[in-house]
Amino acid sequence: MRATRPDQAEPWPEFAELYRKYVDLVYRYCRHRLGSPEEAEDAASQVFLKAMSAFSARRNGGSVASWLFRIAHNQIIDVYRTRRSQCDLADVESHPSPGHSPEDLALAAIEQDEVHSVLLCLPSEQRRVVELRLVGLDTAEIAHVLGKTQAAVRMTQSRAFARLRVLLTQDASPVQDTVKEHLNVSS
Q1: Would you state the pLDDT for residue 148?
Q2: Rounded to whole angstroms, how far apart are CA atoms 165 and 171?
Q3: How far, rounded to the nearest angstrom, does the alpha carbon of residue 113 sit from its chain's CA centroid?
Q4: CA distances from 107 to 114, 146, 147, 169 (A)
Q5: 147 phi-psi bin (left φ>0, alpha ψ -120 to 50, beta other)
Q6: Contact yes or no for 145/69 (Cβ under 8 A)
Q7: CATH number for the 110-187 domain, one of 3.40.50.620, 1.10.10.10, 2.60.120.10, 1.10.10.60?
Q8: Could you say which of 4, 56, 107, 119 is the most buried, measured as most Cβ atoms within 10 Å of its Cβ?
Q9: Is residue 145 a contact partner of residue 73, using CB atoms and an 8 Å limit?
């Protein structure tokens, strides 16, 4: 017997649409937080397995994105808890996409490393808010994911962006414009 919601006889086409819409964002969030493409793929898979098992019972209140990223946030915490050793990025085999040149991939990797290193200068709570903002969540969704009020998220975000501005004016790097672009995101 299939699990169904009373207002919809077949929930799986709706879930398939949710998957198509959010799979890349959830993967990028997991990849950014975990560092390893393999761990990110595993975590994203677990997020969607958990979401699928809870989808029929999900109530229509609140944003689907915040519900999904809350699951992702909790999954990442689970991964951190179960990690026994850090994976060296040099040991991770990368699989470049066939459409990009090695130079493009190298530049993108450098930019990603620079963004990641700047974000590491932030306290963990500020970093989580910025990471969720960078994957496209709004203030209300971030508040739901982190279990905080919108006012607390806005304050944390404001402090994070102020700290990033200071860091970026001290360190001139090619990634400055990209990060500064994201700092101008409004709530």
Answers
A1: 92
A2: 10
A3: 16
A4: 11, 32, 36, 22
A5: left
A6: yes
A7: 1.10.10.10
A8: 119
A9: yes
Amino acid identity of residue 133, one-letter, is: R
Q: Which two tokens stand for residue 71?
A: 């699951």
**Residue 63: predicted pLDDT:** 81
Distance CA 178, CA 113 (A): 13
Q: CA torsion angle for 26, 28, 31, 32 (degrees, to 10)?
A: -110
Say what the pLDDT of residue 186 is: 47
- Token pair for residue 155? 């304050």
The closest of 34, 32, 29 to 70, measured between CA atoms, is: 29
Q: Which CATH number does the domain 8-87 belong to among 3.40.190.10, 1.20.1420.30, 2.40.440.10, 1.10.1740.10?
A: 1.10.1740.10
In this structure, which amino acid lies at residue 132? L
Run means of pLDDT, 10 residues per run, the chain, 187 residues: 47 84 91 87 93 77 82 87 57 50 63 71 88 86 90 94 82 53 51
